[in-house]
Protein: Large ribosomal subunit protein bL17
Amino acid sequence: MRHGKKINHLSRQTAHRKSMLANMACSLIEHKRINTTVAKAKALKQFVEPMITKSKEDTTHNRRIVMANLRQKDAVAELFRDVAAKVANRPGGYTRIIKLGNRLGDNADMAMIELVDYNELYNAGKPEKKTTRRSRRGGAKPAAAPAVEPKATKEEEE
Structure:
């Protein structure tokens, strides 16, 4: 039984798994999309999304936490400078996994994992929408009726 075992170990020891995920996360931040297996993509998604959330608030504490996980100074700098600005208004779901089929050599399930806000093909058709939150308590105020201009008389038109 696998009660309480949420981490996919990816057939690796702990240190190897953490190093591999850190390297893959740095590659994802640098290149904005990478190809890997589906299992590694799912593990990488769980690894990198909390760090992107931390990068939205640029404090020394958050930088140190992310640096402890990523281990590359230039990747951390790019995450806090570029990626955080791009995902500032997104509440979560910073990555997207697209399945690509099977690899020719060993028939492994392959996937592409990418940062959502950097793909212009998917984001081109969607306009920026305003985020409004409405409560169910009935606190909504009725909208004011639009002002109607008086019609011009025949004398004013001539």
Q: What stands out?
A: Strands lie at 33-37, 95-102, 109-115. Residues 53 and 92 are 7 Å apart (CA to CA). The helical segments are 14-31, 38-55, 60-70, 73-86, 120-123, 154-157.
